[in-house]
Design brief:
44% of the residues lie in helices and 19% in strands. By secondary structure, the protein is α+β, with helices and mostly antiparallel strands. It folds into two domains: 169 residues, no CATH class; 222 residues, no CATH class. The protein has a six-stranded mixed sheet, sandwiched between helices.
Length: 408
């Protein structure tokens, strides 16, 4: 498995200008290559493949191509082909009626402000100085504990007001544990992760810190945008970018802490599988209040899922996702089938509580998590009456351990 070590390079860093210039040159080559590929498409309705365009630039000694080392330039040209293949893929889906949005041809990057990723393959990286890697034909040295045998590539990724150096490296996945112990997760806003296990453990991870970060961010951005409309102040615009970067970094840090906690809990309880309930319509959910829907949009659930996935692989835990349809509406304690019903036997009566058929009050998010667990195990033929009876007893106890994880 390939993971990425990240280094943030801000404008005052000694390598910033050199890296920024490389991203500028990569943009120039990208736009130049894109022009030729676009023209070929307009004339032939086909893709001008990378091998052909690359040979053309080498044979003609193209100025934009020569501005970068050949091993770096070829990856920039490959980006054009990658983006065009995505474009053709969307055209194909639209032709089949499976994509209803407009399909736009890849666009040029801005002449002045535009920057493009710079990719250094292993052959363009020097490992001569211990504890550092050096990028070919540059002064750029990056401090790292990674060894030569692990490093696969380095990418320079331009962002708003900073650049990220990504060092891709190989790490060995552990063999998966072969047992039937499962931890299921229901994702939400107030409780970002409601977790239950087949051994009877249950806990909630408080999501209010994430809500606070988003609320504070939205408030500050709205204030800045209203001032920008009046003044068009460039400093305000830069300030907006800085706030966005800080918000994204804080959320990323928080998600790392949450996912690490969950995986560590799974390891300590000998869990073989973690399953997460997901909803394909999260971003389009309009059946919520305006504020709750805004919180949903601002929480990167798919990033949370991806983090859990790779951390499970590092610990040898099987990771799965399953659709969460009707898991929050059906009553786990009453063994209600997880499907659409005209009338449900239980009901969510508040943000925190779900009332069962017999009037028992249980945590609503824990009810959803148990139904995700049940749905997954039924699909894999591992659900049985003994597990059902044990977990119904545990679920009937209203008290739940609540975990508060601090964000930097």
């Amino acid at each position: 498995m390939v993971l990425v070590e990240k280094h943030i390079i801000k404008p005052k860093h000694k390598y910033y200008d050199e890296i920024d210039n490389l991203c500028w040159l990569s943009k120039n080559l990208y736009n130049s290559t894109l022009y030729n590929v676009r023209q070929y498409y307009f004339e032939n309705k086909k893709l001008l493949k990378y091998q052909i365009i690359n040979k053309m630039y080498v044979d003609t000694n193209n100025e934009d191509y020569r501005a970068l080392p050949a091993k770096i330039a070829k990856h920039t040209q490959m980006l054009v082909e990658h983006n065009f293949k995505s474009f053709f893929g969307l055209l194909k889906l639209k032709g089949k009626g499976k994509y209803d949005k407009p399909v736009k041809i890849p666009k040029y990057l801005d002449k002045k402000k535009g920057r493009q990723v710079v990719h250094y393959e292993k052959g363009a990286i020097s490992f001569k100085e211990q504890g550092y890697i050096k990028l070919s034909k540059t002064n750029i040295k990056i401090k790292t504990k990674l060894t030569k045998d692990k490093v696969q590539f380095v990418r320079l990724v331009p962002k708003n007001n900073y650049i990220v150096i990504e060092i891709g490296y190989n790490i060995k996945e552990q063999e998966q544990k072969l047992n039937d112990n499962v931890l299921a997760i229901d994702i939400g806003v107030n409780n970002i992760a409601s977790c239950v296990t087949t051994n009877g453990d249950k806990f909630l991870i408080n999501g209010k810190q994430l809500k606070y970060i988003n609320h504070n961010y939205n408030k500050r951005i709205a204030n800045i945008q209203s001032k920008l409309k009046l003044t068009h102040n460039k400093n305000k615009s830069r300030y907006k970018s800085n706030i966005t970067n800080r918000r994204n970094n804080r959320i990323n840090d928080y998600l790392h802490k949450i996912t690490t906690y969950i995986v560590n809990q799974a390891v300590s309880k000998n869990i073989g599988t973690i399953v997460v309930g997901y909803n394909k319509e999260w971003k389009q959910d309009t059946n919520m209040s305006k504020s709750n829907n805004q919180n949903f949009v601002n929480i990167p659930f798919y990033r949370f899922i991806n983090m859990l996935d790779y951390k499970c692989k590092l610990k040898g835990i099987n990771f799965q996702t399953i659709t969460e349809e009707y898991t929050s509406k059906c009553s786990f304690i009453d063994d209600e089938e997880i499907e659409k019903h005209i009338n449900y036997v239980g009901k969510r009566i508040s943000r925190n509580f779900f009332r069962t058929k017999k009037g028992i009050l249980i945590n609503a998010d824990i009810n959803g998590a148990y139904n995700i667990l049940k749905k997954y195990m039924k699909e894999n033929a591992t659900w049985n009456e003994k597990i059902s009876q044990t977990l119904v007893k545990v679920c009937s106890i209203p008290s739940v351990r609540k975990i508060n994880i601090r964000v930097s």
